[in-house]
From TrEMBL, chain A:
Name of one Pfam family that matches: ABC2_membrane_6
Name used for this protein in its record: Membrane protein
InterPro entries per record: ABC-2_transporter-like (IPR010390)
Record keywords, A-Z: Membrane, Transmembrane, Transmembrane helix
Lineage: Bacteria, Bacillati, Bacillota, Bacilli, Bacillales
Residue ranges crossing the lipid bilayer per the database entry: 21-44, 50-69, 118-136, 142-168, 201-220, 226-248
TrEMBL record, chain B:
SMART domains: AAA
PROSITE patterns: ABC_TRANSPORTER_2
Gene3D superfamilies assigned: P-loop containing nucleotide triphosphate hydrolases
Protein name: ABC transporter
One annotated GO molecular function: ATP binding
Domain ABC transporter: start-end pairs: 6-259
InterPro entries from the UniProt entry: AAA+_ATPase, ABC_transporter-like_ATP-bd, ABC_transporter_ATP-binding, P-loop_NTPase
Keywords, alphabetical: ATP-binding, Nucleotide-binding, Transport
UniProt keyword Cell inner membrane, yes or no: no
Length: 260, 330
């Protein structure tokens, strides 16, 4: 873990070498989700509510997903950009160092410009919470933290899966974006608005539902239930990460036997 | 015989390579049906390297040099055979094993591009968990030996290739490895940097007893450094021996160039030697030391002409290598 922060440190130093581009990219990242958010705002302006969900309830959902996404794009970017590491052969370099591959790949790249997106999501989060007094309690704050944390785990898991495919294809495969970008777009709304199979898919296969919809029911007092389930359900995200890491190991083993 | 620090026995490795044919139609077809070809990169490679040796590992492009280095450094798992390096099987105990080796890939950097060299070194200290004392000591020694003092504060991207290579080599030695793998360390370097790198490799080998495995296409590297040559071609080991042996095997041919005071007589014939050039002031002969003695050649020449200068050249190592390649048809 301390090594991870060492990597973080050196990468931050590197990125700050290019100050102008860092600032511009960050500002760009700040405005990108604004478009999406604008769409959300005008939709509510027109329809007032979405299947019983008020504007601020949906923006809370939006903020959780976008926070998770920007955090994982910043801190797990190494896996997201993994194809270049394989294509350039630099992955060999990681293998001759006496450390695990996961921490080294994570440390190979950080995308600090995501701070723009992070800032935007944080503003939306604060604005939502300020307008949702039923969320103001300590256990709910903790739950909210768990939601974001596990959301990061899910996105990281998907990045790792996508990266693993690079061992076979060398190039990054776009299909993974169906789950990262697509998953983000889907999960920024409460999952009840979709078809049943979509909801099931995003609850049991790629468990975005565990970090948004299900705990939100507890957070917003939409469903009677103990706070324990509300707090524990988000950990479905962490559970999702485990098989991803397993698949990663298989990928590394494949790489080391084929060298491609 | 003493047990070597590196022992490879019967290492084999084959790759499945997708066949590619030219043309758009073929490429489209390849999307669905792919023909594979098995390429045997290594066939039954066995050798032993003793502690403190400098071994030059040579062979034409695609002969299997890099594959061998990858197997020995724990990156690749071979299909068969055993490999024991310092008692470890590289691909099985990767993290424990790589602590004891240093690897320099001449064409790829291990330093972080945008930050000063010293930052890279410090990160490597943390990656290898080098004790502070040892790190400081090694850094001081390497800085002195490779004249890095002025480079440590400079971002890697601003270094010249020669400067960068010195830093790369220092980076691979910070954790005091027992074995150093150098994959084309002098590629693209100018003469001065090349010499600096070479003399440094000699020095750490002598002063610290580091065993060095070196791949290169530059035969002058081999000449300057290697006690021993391993030559690989088409995945098989073709030659294992000292440079002197190689010389005595192929290097019995000599050319002699003689300059003399103007001589207008008939060209001189020397039994056992072939006349390559003849003019009124200079002649060049080639001969084989196995069939005729140098002293006789000179004696016969000086009997006819008034010698001013004479020079004898043996076949250079590049030619010997080419001859060896030809002999094995690779």
């Amino acid at each position: 873990m301390s090594l991870y922060f060492r990597y973080l440190n050196i990468q931050l130093k590197s990125q700050l070498q290019y100050r102008a581009s860092f600032l511009l990219l960050s500002i760009g990242q700040f405005f990108i989700p604004f478009m999406v958010f604008g769409g959300l705002y005008f939709m509510f302006e027109r329809f007032g509510q979405l299947e019983g969900w008020s504007f601020f309830e949906v923006t809370l959902c939006f903020a959780v997903i976008h926070l998770s996404f920007s955090l994982s794009e910043c801190f797990a970017r190494g896996f997201d950009a993994f194809s270049s590491l394989v294509a350039s052969g630099d992955f060999d370099r990681l293998l001759v160092r006496p450390r695990g591959t996961v921490v080294q790949v994570l440390g190979s790249k950080f995308e600090f410009t995501r701070i723009g997106r992070l800032l935007q999501s944080t503003i939306v989060l604060i604005w939502s919470i300020a307008n949702l007094p039923q969320v103001w309690s300590f256990p709910k704050a903790i739950t909210l933290f768990f939601m974001v944390f596990n959301g990061v785990m899910i996105f990281t898991g998907i990045f790792i899966l996508a990266a693993t495919f690079c061992f076979w294809t060398i190039q990054a495969i776009e299909i993974a974006n169906v789950f990262t970008d697509g998953g983000r777009e889907m999960a920024q709304y409460p999952l009840t608005i979709y078809e049943k199979w979509v909801t099931r898919f995003f609850t049991f296969i790629v468990p975005f539902g565990c970090v948004t919809y299900l705990p939100l029911m507890y957070l917003l007092d939409k469903e009677e239930g103990s706070w324990v389930t509300g707090m524990l359900v988000p950990f479905g995200g962490l559970l999702f990460l485990l098989p991803c890491l397993l698949v990663w190991r298989i990928g590394v083993r494949h790489y080391r036997s084929t060298g491609s | 015989m003493e047990k070597g620090i590196i022992q490879l026995t019967g290492i084999g490795k084959s790759f499945k390579v997708a066949e590619r044919t030219a043309g758009l139609r073929q490429a489209a077809k390849a999307l669905f049906v792919r023909k594979h070809r098995i390429v045997e990169a290594l066939k039954d490679i066995s050798f032993t390297v003793n502690e403190g040796e400098i071994v030059g590992y040579i062979g034409p492009n695609g002969a299997g040099k890099s594959t061998t280095i990858k197997v020995m450094s724990g990156i690749l798992v071979p299909d068969g055979g055993t490999c024991s390096i310092m008692g470890y099987t590289p691909w099985k105990e990767r993290t424990d094993y790589v602590r004891h080796i240093g690897v320099v890939f001449g064409q790829r950097s291990q330093l972080w591009w945008d930050v000063p060299v010293i930052d890279s070194f410090e990160l490597l200290r943390d990656i290898y968990r080098i004790p502070d004392e040892m790190y400081r000591e090694n850094l001081a020694v390497l800085t002195e030996m490779l004249a890095l003092a002025d480079l440590l504060g400079v971002p890697v991207r601003q270094l010249s290739l020669g400067q960068r290579m010195r830093c790369e080599i220092a980076a691979s030695l910070l954790h005091s490895p027992k074995i150093l793998f150098l994959d084309e360390p002098t590629i693209g370097l100018d003469a001065v940097s090349k010499l600096a790198v070479r003399s440094f490799i000699r020095r750490i080998n002598q002063e610290r007893g580091v065993t060095v495995i070196l791949t290169t296409h530059d035969m002058s590297d081999i000449e300057a450094l290697a006690d021993r040559i391993l030559m690989i071609g088409k995945g098989t080991l073709l030659y294992d021996g000292s440079l002197e042996e190689l010389r005595s095997r192929f290097g019995t041919g000599r050319t002699i160039t003689a300059d003399y005071r103007e001589y207008v007589g008939e060209p001189v014939d020397i039994p056992g030697a072939t006349r390559l050039q003849w003019s009124t002031e200079r002649a060049v002969y080639s001969f084989d030391t196995e069939s005729v003695v140098l002293a006789d050649v000179i004696a016969q020449l000086s009997g006819s002409v008034e010698l001013l200068d004479i020079s004898v050249d043996s076949k250079d190592i590049d030619e010997m290598i080419v001859q060896l390649y030809e002999e094995h048809q690779i």
